[in-house]
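Re: weekly structure request thread

Next one in the queue (509 aa):
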Amino acid sequence: MAIIGSLIKGAIDVAGNFVSEANHVDNQQKVLKNLLEKAKDTAFGKYYGFQKILDAENIEKVFQEQVPYFDYHQMQKDWWYKLHEGLEDITWPGIPSYYALSSGTTGKKSKKIPVTDEMIESIRNAGIKQVTALSNFDMPADFFEKEIMMLGSSTNLKEKDGHLEGEISGISASNIPFWFEGYYKPGKEISQIDDWDERVKNIAENAKNWDIGALSGIPSWMELMLKEVINYHGVNNIHEVWPNLQAYTSGGVAFDPYKKSFEALLGKPVTVIDTYLASEGFLACQTRPDTTSMELITDNGVYFEFVPFQPEYINPDGSLVQDAPVKTLAEVEKDVDYVLLISTVSGTWRYLIGDTIAFTDVEKAEIKITGRTKFFLNVVGSQLSVNKMNKAIQELEEQFSIKLPEFTVSAVKIEEEFYHVWHLGTNQDISVSEEELAEALDKNLQDANKNYKVARSKALKGVKVNLLPMDVFYEWSGANKKKGGQVKMEKVMGEEKYQEFKDFVKQNS
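Done, posted below.
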């Protein structure tokens, strides 16, 4: 009998029973007030009159009026550069202990996002909330004695000017509690290997030494690691190596597009639990099994705002126009795409994280990630969000019984006429032609999106499809940013980036 597992499961079940139904709106009002109180004497707080906001009758409304929207580049240009000059108390009291490096999905140059000690605590609290929520998933007692494979970026953080730098997954893993170290795989030594391919090679070599019960990481890189382990040991699926694998905590991107290819690597079903850990914070996690949506963590140092995702509110670079309307959690509606803004204990304020979300349950504050503001294809009025693209690709998978876990698309002018050129990633030998796929994809999009259908009758001439091996997508990410960790494939490319990708494909075909 799994005695230790039974004790842990019992403790989690007890903790889960004591968690009361959250009042998310009240939580958010308290979080905003606390954020303003703590930051009122910073340079940012004084400039935007945080004390005046705190004295107002409606703090949320005056906060919206006083503080503009920021994206990373504006925050860096106006405020965070002062931190790199050694100044303190800029957008949050003191100086940050860490910087999360994030290339996002748009360029080679890394962003450097402050991560304070309060944010480390916030991420840890969110992890505890997620573990407590396991009481809702009816996991067997022996599950809680198994090891957890946390696949992220290297934990070998770089020291620079009195702080440490690395990707947020590496920062988080380097701060795991001492009592968790025995469960954590691949362990400190392998996790510190900077080179992704070398790290995965070491994981594969050691895989049979571990009794893995759960996986955690971004789907695309998790799949690549699992394939390496499967190939190294000459088995048919990952359960032949890790027979007790029962759960996968996905994160960083929507899991649905990867579901079919991920399940092909399994010998039996596993429980998939979605999470939302961004470089700027741990924002949401799935807390119950009867949904694939995630609950916003509303009481943990992050204040959320929501701008309706409409073309007229988005600048060409993906930032927001300053007069775009905004809603609080009390004002949002179900099934509407919103641009997500956050203010946090790391000193981000009304900060455009770059993701779009939709509420699946407003009362429970449950959401799904629907796309990225920069991945909105509207060159010829087609108004394609990533969510609509994902659904169209999933329909192709069902229609032709194929797996297409990655794609990228661009609006390309060919002989004075616009086409949507799609590159679809697969490792299968597909009998259907690229022309047939293009025709079916075009039809799926027209059936589901009236704006796209109108564009196809006017400026958008047609659709072209190119099938590519999955390795091309992985190597592109490696060449442009870095393999593994929080790195995600750009779903929409502008003209210049598309030409770079096209040249890369030609060189590596």
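The domain at 386-508 is CATH 3.30.300 (GMP Synthetase; Chain A, domain 3). Confidence is low (pLDDT under 50) at residues 1-15.
Next request, please.
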